[in-house]
Amino acid sequence: MSEPRNPELEQVIQHDPDEASAYQVYGDWLAARGHPRGELIALQARGLDAQADTLLADHPGLWEAVGEFRDLITKPVWRLGFLEAARVANTYERTQGRHQVTGLVPTALGKLLEGPGRFLRDLTVGIVSFKQNDYTPVTEALADRGPLPTLRALAPGATIEPAPPHSGVASRRLASSAGVPGATIEPCTAKVAAHGFDDDRGRAAR
After folding, report:
1. For a FRET experiment, which of 40, 95, 106, 151 has its CA 20 to 30 Å from that of 133?
2. Nearest-5° angle of CA 86, CA 190, CA 149?
3. What is the DSSP string of 135-195?
4. Coil/strand/helix, residue 128
């Protein structure tokens, strides 16, 4: 079944994404309409992680809009019915026999942000293209969406050693395109510059 949406309740969550009660109100609204995300929110709010994991396994539709791009999304962290953190990256299997692959990651990211990651807090963007990794398609996709109000950390995570030329510029563009100002630096696997900084220490966070 398609997931019902309530823009007013979603705005409440976006205003304060750390407030659990806002998710629970939304969960009650979803449950009243028979959608399993309502039950998932209730289970995770009560700390019943094993039951929540079973529900996720039994209802792949909870990934909804992600669909065929599910394999590009790894390291998912669920909180109160939605993805709190995730990594989006191309895969070698996806690139075999294809000439144009740069659109895969931006498309997968868009699907994620439209669906279970619409209140995402932490995002890592990995390899975009194995031929010549370039974050430009991702920054353009994020800029087109406008600021992401719940996002607190955005990190390029391509794990390229050594860091490619101008990686600092790419990282700053990636962070600024999503409206994530640099405030603190945290370690990250990729050698890229954080938003607002010129070295290669790591991650943009607020």
Report:
1. 151
2. 40
3. -HHHHHHHHHH---TT--EEEE----SSPPTTHHHHHHHHHHHTT----EEE--SS--PPT
4. coil
Identify the three-state secondary structure at position 134: coil
Specify the 3-state DSSP secondary structure of 49.
helix
Sign (positive or negative) of CA dihedral 115, 73, 79, 62: positive
In this model, does residue 92 exceed pLDDT 80? no
Residue with tokens 């954080």: 194
Distance, CA of 117 to CA of 65 (rounded, Å): 10
User: 186-203, pLDDT tens digit by residue?
Assistant: 333 332 233 222 223 333
Distance CA 188, CA 156 (A): 8
> Can you read off the two tokens belonging to residue 142?
């994020």
First and final C-alpha spacing in the chain: 36
- pTM of the prediction? 0.75
Q: Which residue has the tokens 């995002």?
A: 123
The 10s digit of each residue's pLDDT in 149-196 is: 898 888 876 543 334 444 444 444 444 444 444 323 233 333 223 322
Q: How many residues does the chain have?
A: 206
Distance between CA atoms of 205 and 177, rounded to whole angstroms?
14
